[in-house]
Specification:
The protein has about 90 residues and is mostly helical. It has one domain. Helix content is about 45%, strand content about 0%. The protein is built from three helices and no strands. The termini are far apart.
Length: about 90
């Protein structure tokens, strides 16, 4: 059995009972006075699906660098923009 197949089967067993909640939209992220949280106003969520090991490594890096995952993703997106000749506009 390939290592990848072993990992996938292990992940299936580990995640079998996990229920995934539907994505949260900006409209549903509201505080008591019914206004969108200021830090998210005018912004859109960008997401992707990755193996759990990717998330774990990202969280470890955030802890090591004392940065938020949001800040690390912004840095990575800006690096990607620069690589392809676009201005770094992710903050």
């Amino acid at each position: 059995m390939e290592d990848r197949e072993i990992i996938l089967r292990s992940m299936e067993r580990l995640t079998a009972d996990i229920v995934i909640a539907p994505p949260i939209s900006n409209e549903s992220v509201q505080i008591a006075n019914n206004s969108v949280v200021n830090s998210r106003e005018g912004k859109k969520m960008i997401a992707g699906h990755f193996y759990p090991e990717v998330r774990k490594q990202l969280k470890q890096l955030a802890l090591e660098k004392d940065l938020s995952i949001q800040a690390l993703l912004g840095e990575a997106i800006n690096d990607l923009f620069i690589k392809y000749g676009k201005p770094p506009i992710a903050d």
